[in-house]
Amino acid sequence: MAFLELENVEKTFFTYNTMTTAVENISFTINEGEFISLIGPSGCGKTTLLSLISGLFHPTTGQILLEETVIEEPTPETGYMLQQDYLFPWLNIEENITLGLRTMGKTAEQDVAFAFDMLTTLGLADKRHHYPSQLSGGMRQRVALVRMLSTDPKLLLLDEPFSALDYQTKLKLENLVFSTIRTHGKTAILVTHDIGEAIAMSDRIILLTGRPGSIRKTFNIPLHLADDLPFNVRLADEFNPLFQQIWKEMESHDTHT
Fold it and tell me: Where are its TM segments located (predicted)?
């Protein structure tokens, strides 16, 4: 049984006098515990796909199933992490990371303790009473990760969560997020423009065509790389040939469009 399944998904946006198809003929499955990356040219519908999987949008045609149940609206089973942290500036870090729990009515001691344990694991235990403005960009993204994981979602949607960070912080957070997701056995979908990031973090990479986005090709990452830390993958002998393979596939498509 597939954990997540997309069946012939299409999404068309309508206005009074226009219609725009963002994605079409999208079909793929993801097994529980897999880490998948979506890459492709700007405007190809990567973020639209995440919004569809999250239940924020409904497909125009086709359906999306999470554990054999059709996704019709946002659900606590899914967590979303964006390129901006969207922490509430008037709440301190402790209040920010427990906001989702309070909204869901999960205020039991063990639920709150899990969130604080995650904060400690990510090296922010001493920042509980700080406010977002007192933290660096990398720290705020770690808080956003804790906030997402605190409600214990089964599926994590990551929309370019490292793109606004400097390169050194980005590499450190890749390792941290990857390790955290693997440790907790989560299933994840990453949207990124960075081919290297996709290779370093994924089990599989799905390359989309230009708008309307459809699946051009899927790349399977060798198991020994998929199980290693992203920083180590970037240093592996196989990294550059795989990067070139994906780059040439993208360039080939651009040349013919």
Answer: none
Give the Cα-Cα-Cα angle 206, 149, 226 (nearest 5 degrees): 35
Mean pLDDT throughout 76-84? 87
| Tens digit of each residue's pLDDT (9 = 90 or more) over 37-69 | 999 998 899 999 999 999 999 999 999 999 999
In angstroms, the CA 238 to CA 225 distance is 9
Closest CA to 239 of 254, 253, 252, 226: 226
H/E stretch holding 21: strand 19-30
Q: What mean pLDDT comes out for the span 195-202?
A: 96
Give the integer Cα–Cα distance in Å for 135 and 221.
Answer: 35
Q: Give the chain's domains with CATH numbers.
A: 4-77+153-255 (3.40.50.300)
Distance CA 123, CA 8 (A): 42
Contact of 94 with 129, CB cutoff 8 Å:
yes
